[in-house]
Known about the structure:
- With 458 residues, the protein is an alpha/beta fold.
- Helices cover 34% and strands 17% of the residues.
- It has three domains: 11-126, Alpha-helical ferredoxin (Fumarate Reductase Iron-sulfur Protein, Chain B, domain 2); 137-232 and 391-456, FAD/NAD(P)-binding domain; 235-389, FAD/NAD(P)-binding domain (3-Layer(bba) Sandwich), CATH 3.50.50.60.
- The mean pLDDT is 94.
- It binds flavin-adenine dinucleotide.
Amino acid sequence: MQKVKMPARDPNIRKKDFKQVNYGYSQCEMLKEAKRCMQCKKPLCIHGCPIGINIPKFIRYLAQNDHKRAAIVLRQKNNLPAVCGRVCQQENQCEKFCILAKRNESVSIGSLERYAADVTAIENSLSSITISKNGIKVAIIGSGPAGLTCGGDLLKMGYDVTVYESLHDAGGVLRYGIPEFRLPKYVLDLELYSLKKLGMKIILNTLIGRTKTVKELFGEEYKALFIATGAGLPVFPKIPGENLNHVYSANEFLVRVHLMHSFNFPHYDTPIYKARNVVVIGGGNTAIDAARTALRLGAESVKVVYRRTENEMPARKEEQVHAKEEGVEFVTLTSPVKFIGNEKRFVKAVECMKIEVGEIDNLGKKYLSKIIGSNYIIETDMVVLALGLNPNPILPSLIEGLIIDNHGHIVTDDSFMTPLPGIFAGGDIVCGTNVIKAMEMGKKAAKAIERYLKKSSK
Ligand SMILES: Cc1cc2nc3c(=O)[nH]c(=O)nc-3n(C[C@H](O)[C@H](O)[C@H](O)COP(=O)(O)OP(=O)(O)OC[C@H]3O[C@@H](n4cnc5c(N)ncnc54)[C@H](O)[C@@H]3O)c2cc1C
């Protein structure tokens, strides 16, 4: 039986608004897809899930149309299932190990996860779970997937958890980076609501290190801290013209649009330039999100310039397909060498060079070299740079005794403990990855925090 395709909105209509692209399975589609699962005796998909969800079990319940039980299985391991069902790179994780993947037709585990989470979201947020509290306080710094997962697991173990967030809204990249058309904010709000009902306190507008120090947190009787401050520091290409007007970092661009609602200017305060011809540099999720966002702001042409081939783009495959359907053009094996401005210092063109792919280098990636004399010009009135993000440096630089590697990551042991007693760290601040890997680190850290607190109370 063939995989049931995730139904999506017409590209010509959806590219003009920020509403969700994928509809989600209907009950009938869900049943058809769930019944494709072979219920393997030795299910490899579980090993492909960084947080170890019992995938065959939740799918078995779905196949019996018992979405309540399916959701219970999911939520045992996952504090953010509706988020993961939408943004996880399933094709490189659980679905890659599905026995049906050999025929390129793995079970759509992500779409089924989304179904089970969505149909139970309201009842889950209204239901109350009784947890016996132990009164021990733990502070989480940063409200992205790593922080929310660590905090959620500690709550379930009985700890008193407070999450501190520097921005005016919680969720980290899930809030300010990933666009509404991929992850509607009501979905995130429902997940946050469930965590708050479990007892999570979320304190916004508080930059730990500046508004409040780590020493002050320990003074407030927190017995352990989990640093999950993420990676929000944009990487720049270090080429001429990167300081021209209308050359944005993807982070600034996406934050202005999605967190500050700049597309609603003048109803909101932070404006954004609405460009006609946009060039996005990069090939990851951030680049594709920026390109599709630019399209929705009214751009007539959006080009994604990437130095490797399309197959090597790190962005989720589904997003690449959706971007192309919407009219985003991929210019591959190409690298920018200069941004050219007009007399008022506004960008008007990107000078690019074609790239030649060579042998595999010692990092396992194909060696790239610029082809001499291949320079050409792409005209543009806005450039968005999506070349990667480095860890947020503020807090690590303010905690004496932390070990920081050359890339700015906090160094921890295998259980995500730093050399400082009671201070743990995880997510992109430790190792830049993705949502589910950040959650995996949050989960492991929660277990380590419990071990540490039990040991130190003896
Ligand atoms: C545009 C974009 C799209 C992406 N798309 C995907 C995708 O489709 N799938 C996927 O798997 N991954 C995706 N990723 C990657 C993924 O979002 C990150 O790996 C993940 O969010 C990391 O989680 P985190 O909890 O470590 O940090 P973050 O999500 O970055 O959260 C960190 C939080 O800490 C707060 N903070 C920072 N410093 C302080 C401080 N001193 N005090 C208090 N709070 C502080 C920040 O404001 C932020 O809210 C995407 C990333 C981007 C940028």
